[in-house]
Amino acid sequence: xxxxxxxxxxxxxxxxxxxxxxxxxxxxxxxxxxxxxxxxxxxxxxxxxxxxxxxxxxxxxxxxxxxxxxxxxxxxxxxxxxxxxxxxxxxxxxxxx
Length: 97
Fold this sequence. Notes:
97 residues
């Protein structure tokens, strides 16, 4: 059940990336910038991240009421997230990159 949920989350991310690329960001620096702006609706974190990184991202997300989802590396989608730097976000609105 959890694996299915993780796949759905990542499918939503990749679907948004293909249809509305200005509504997603990935990579640590870009995601941190959007978290600081309060633009992130859903923060997606890989369980492969170190504890300090997880703490930093969840702390920023908590300040802006951002939903957080953790994705394992047990699926191909989870490995794709890891390859994107272990962190991705679906935004509340489109942003210029």
